[in-house]
Amino acid sequence: MDKWLSLLDGFQYNLVLFFGTIAAAVPLGLLICFCSMSKFKPLSYLSKVFVWIIRGTPLMLQLFVVLYVPGLVFNMPMKSRLTASFVAFIINYAAYFSEIYRGGIESIPKGQYEAGQVLGLTKTQVFMKIVLFQVIRRIVPPMGNEIITLVKDTSLARIIGVAEIIMSAERFSKAGVIWPLFSTGLFFLAMCGVLTLIFGALEKKMNYYKN
């Protein structure tokens, strides 16, 4: 029983990382998306380069960079390894979310914007009243995939010393008790199962907004 409670305590860090990352990365990704699509070329270029770098390097490396570079380069060391994990996860997933947003927005035919403007709507009104729900319906599946991946990626925080569930289980394996390490999969499976049901129901509801 004590071992299960220890695993549950470790999984709390996974959940904190998961929900904190979602809360910050979803709006930040939208901001990066708008910057990438901006007609102001320097801003668009910088945003695209940023996304390219983040998507092109491993999250594990980004965790080390966030943890050590501020102290080594700017003499401002990270005070908390959990904070470093938050920063790395938020930046990483915001970059991925921004590309999902951009793909969803650009998938809408330009004729719909033009038709709305012919009817006297502003670009903002066209986006909010005509385009938005179509974009949401199109991005739900890829967003769901990324969010489910995030559940599993939270385990990477252990490499910089965050005592999440797998690190908690590894402590038992060093003492010759191996089953807690494999039991961690049950926690991830349960969380991913719940999210799969939620996104499945959301996709079904979004089918109302068909083109």
Q: How would you describe this protein?
A:
This protein has 211 residues and is mostly helical. It has one domain (2-206): MetI-like (MetI-like fold), CATH 1.10.3720.10. The chain has 8 helices and no strands. It has helices at residues 2-36, 41-56, 59-74, 81-106, 110-118, 123-153, 165-173, 179-206. Helix 1 (2-36) runs antiparallel to helix 2 (41-56), helix 2 crosses helix 4 (81-106) and helix 7 (165-173) runs antiparallel to helix 8 (179-206). It is flat.
For the termini, the CA-CA separation is 53 Å
* Number of spatially distinct domains: 1
CATH architecture field = Orthogonal Bundle
Q: Please tally the β strands and state the result.
A: 0
Helix/strand class: mainly alpha
| Helix and strand pattern | HHHHHHHH
Provide the low-confidence segments as ranges: none
Shape: flat
Overall pLDDT: 91
How are the secondary structure elements laid out?
Elements: H1 2-36, H2 41-56, H3 59-74, H4 81-106, H5 110-118, H6 123-153, H7 165-173, H8 179-206
Helix pairs in contact: 1-2, 1-4, 1-7, 2-4, 3-4, 4-6, 5-6, 6-8, 7-8
Please supply descriptive tags for the structure shown above.
211 residues; MetI-like fold; mainly alpha
Give a quick precis of the structure.
By secondary structure, the protein is mostly helical. It contains 8 helices and no strands. The protein has one domain (2-206): MetI-like fold, CATH 1.10.3720.10.
